[in-house]
Amino acid sequence: MVERNDVRAFPPISRVRRFIGFLALLGAVACASHNRNVVPAGTTEPDKFLFDRGTAALNNKKWLTAREFFKQVVETYTQSPYRPDSKLGIGDTYLGEGTSEALVLAINEFKEFLSFYPTNPRADYAQFKLGYAHYKQMRAPQRDQSETREAIKELEAFVERYPNSALLPEVQAKLREAHDRLDDSDYQVGFFYYRNRWYLGSIGRLKPLLDRDPQYTHRDAAYFYLGEALIKQQRQAEALPYYERLVNEFERSDYLEEARKRITELKAQLASRQ
């Protein structure tokens, strides 16, 4: 007879949870395997049936289930008109999962689509999702920016190849964010150099940043600290235009008041030297 106070008679909660998780995994695997035999006998368009089921599962964020349906179309019905969209669907399931491993697999799916179906009406979608898969892996400005550069490369390829696509505005927004991430990385290095009084190093980072990307979203800060670094190097005439650009291009900025003061001071200094 088990006494109620004898906790040793019951399995630890962690073991119970692991067991439940294991059963859930077995259920998912069994479900995925079962999905390969779900086409009803006598179905006149089995490829369409599978594609529709995959699309429904994708819309419900059932990534594994959707992937199984789409894979059946791709692997079994090689001449199906639904095969290209199923290939895209597989990529979308990996994007939906969003893990590092899944995003790598998504990139592979979209690259293969563009290789197999370069003239497909949805090639623009594949190119966008290829760039977006890299975009999803972009790291913080102070970290490695390899994925940011890859996102920029693929999104710029979209702009060049599909200028009339309905997806263009979304692509341009993502491209701006990717450029800003890369620019933020350079800005932070430039600001670090300024704060540590290596003004030449700061100038060497901030000036090329602004030359490369004049639409940088946070360029007001870059203008200001580039101007400050130039002043520290006794290059007042070079500094003045950056403060003026800050004032002319931004109605709101944390640097506006100080920039206006610098403009007044610098103009007075430069006038006195004439």
Low-confidence stretches: 1-11, 19-26
**How many β-strand runs?**
0
What is the typical, i.e. mean, pLDDT? 90
- Proportion of β residues? under 5%
End-to-end separation in angstroms reads: 104 Å
Report the structural category. mainly alpha
Amount of helix: over 70%
Write down the secondary-structure element order. Answer: HHHHHHHHHHHH
Our Rg estimate from Cα atoms comes to 28 Å
Major sheet? none
Broad shape: elongated
Query: Counting H and I runs of at least 4 residues, what is the number of helices?
Result: 12
Short description:
With 274 residues, the chain is mainly α. The chain has helices at 13-34, 46-59, 63-76, 83-97, 100-116, 123-135, 146-161, 168-195, 199-212, 219-232, 236-249, 256-272.
What does this structure look like?
The protein has a domain of 57 residues. The N terminus is likely disordered. The relative contact order is 0.05. It contains twelve helices and no strands. Helix 11 runs antiparallel to helix 12. With 274 residues, the chain is an all-alpha fold.
List keywords for this structure.
0% strand, mainly alpha, disordered N terminus
Produce the secondary structure layout.
Elements lengths: L12 H22 L11 H14 L3 H14 L6 H15 L2 H17 L6 H13 L10 H16 L6 H28 L3 H14 L6 H14 L3 H14 L6 H17 L2
